Structures are given as structure tokens and as C-alpha cells.
Amino acid sequence: MSRIGKLPIEIPKGVKISYTDSNLQVVGPKGTLSRTIMSGVTIEMTENHISVSRDDDGIKSRSAHGLTRTLINNMVTGVTKGFETALEINGVGYRAELKGDVLNLSLGYSHPINFSLPKGINVEVDKMTKILVKGVDKELVGQTAAKIRDFRGPEPYKGKGVKYADETILRKAGKTGKK
Questions:
Q1: What is the pTM of this model?
Q2: Which three-class secondary structure state does DSSP give residue 72?
Q3: What fold, for 83-164?
Q4: Domain boundaries, the chain
């Protein structure tokens, strides 16, 4: 058995889960998420717990067992607490500004970058150099933060660019010059 897959998922109060024809829908105070569950995995629900088991010991069933449990747990956590990822912008003249549902980034290029936010994602900009990406879907929050970071990733010499708040950049020494 998968160590992660055999752990039960606790359903908090205020969360409703419905499972029909391999479609799982989780409704909570922060929103609604739905996902198609892979074949080879069975979901059993009680009043306040969900358990995931696999149908057989095939390679696909074994690999889907722990993954399915983790995805369902992330859905439950997302609709109750939500997820957030913090980004920092470093560099002279680098800044971010939020206009409606468009994030306007000035990252040292000859043109500003206008990034349209996907549905279900909220962004907060603090002091024009800190970006907080929030949402209920963990995958979408992470993907949106990665797209914003990819516009100008941190460079190793001066550390300029967009980086995750908890990311450390390994700095390189510059040219030493002739002596």
C-alpha cells in the first residue's frame, strides 16, 4: 500500500463532497473545485472521512493511489483555507501594478508586460515589489506564480528579476578584471 494513499482525509465542517461517475466535486466556504478521478482507484466516503483505495496492484493503480489522495486533500484544503504564493521583484525600476484583473509588470524591457489573471486567482500587490497570488486551486496558484516568475527570472550576478519570496539565489562572482 502507498503510505500516503492509505491515510484518511478528514472532511471539515462546512465542506460538502459529491462523487458521481468518477467526478468528484468539493464545495466549501471559499469556492468549488471539481476533478475527474483516475480509473483504478476507488473512493469511499463516510460522514467526516474520505479514504482512497486501489482496485488492483497494477502499475497504474499503484501510481494513481497516493496521487489521487493528495489531489483530493488539496481540494479540501483549498476550499477551506485556500493557497497563496508570494513573489518578490528585485531591480531598479522593476515594479508591479494591478489594474482590475490585469497585472502590469515593468521588468526592464522596452515595453510593459500586461498579464491577464486566470479565473479563480486573486493577486495583491504590496509596495509595487511584492506580489501575493491567492486562490483555491493549488495547481492554478502555482502555475500562475510560475508564469509571472518566468517573465524575468532572477539572474545570478545581481539578483535582479522576479523570485519566490522563500527562494534563495546562488550568486556568482563577476569578472575580476586584469591585474
A1: 0.86
A2: helix
A3: Outer Surface Protein A; domain 3 (3.90.930)
A4: 9-80, 83-164
